[in-house]
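User: What would this chain look like folded?
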Amino acid sequence: MRRIPTPPVLGLSLTAVALILAIGSCSGDGDGGGGTTQPPETGTVSGEVTAAGAGVAGATMTLSQGSTTRTTTSASSGAYSFSSVEAGSWSVAIGVPAGFALAAGQAASVPVTVTGGQTATADFALMSTLSSIRATVNVGDEPRSDVTLRLFDAGGNSARATQSTNASGVSIFTALAAAAYDVEVVPPTGLELEEGETARKRVTTTAGAEASVGFALAEVPSAGVVEVELSGISFQPSDVTISPGTTVRWIYRSGGPHTVTPDGHSTWTSATLTAPDQTFEHTFTTAGTFAYYCSPHRGAGMTGVIRVQ
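Assistant: Here's the prediction, encoded as structure tokens.
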């Protein structure tokens, strides 16, 4: 019997048909196999770090998922942000900056779920661990400004801060660790500690709180007025002994112009007297010897001294 050959399919050999089928089986539509891989969806994680409603800068923020971590730092407003975060479950942890602690009920690490194109939020609340001391100075019932106050470590000899009271008689020492401190008042000229008052007081602060201390001053009683005349080229009398609280009044008489210039000290500022009966006066509140001279007539021996004792 004679064999009849199998005709080619559409003019293609069996080998070519098999190759076409093999290539077709390797192609895909993007859902698997060799198609183009789509990029993962991403979102954003952001939040704020605050203490008593104010932004806290310098907090180290860590975003993590398994072994993958990213870090950033909160800005002066307290805000922070991570962009282009792959969708999924993450956690945000805070590194609390110095001077702060986590607020009550606040966790150091919180979970967040990132959704493509969305923003996940994680806020953190802190509280200050620093303290302050409010010092007040009064003369009678009135607040006194421009009074010097010094802050020391408890029992210390070197002042760690020196400030002056404001118009309300107040000075506040801030950013202090919880500890014991000494606050000292320096009475200005014309004022002294009220009877029974002490110049240096111990104050103990607690974390995040303000401690208070007060000082009472009184006017230095006047012991009267002593007059010194500037006549010719001399002070009359040139050597005066007084008690604390006494006022010395210099009066121009003749021979001028004259000055009343401190010699080797700065108890008062040099004054110039040029007209008859013109005066200058100063109240001496502390003991000591206070020399002075007339600048134009010093070479002629126009000098004087006030002894306070």
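The helical segments are 14-26. If you want, I can go into more detail on any region.
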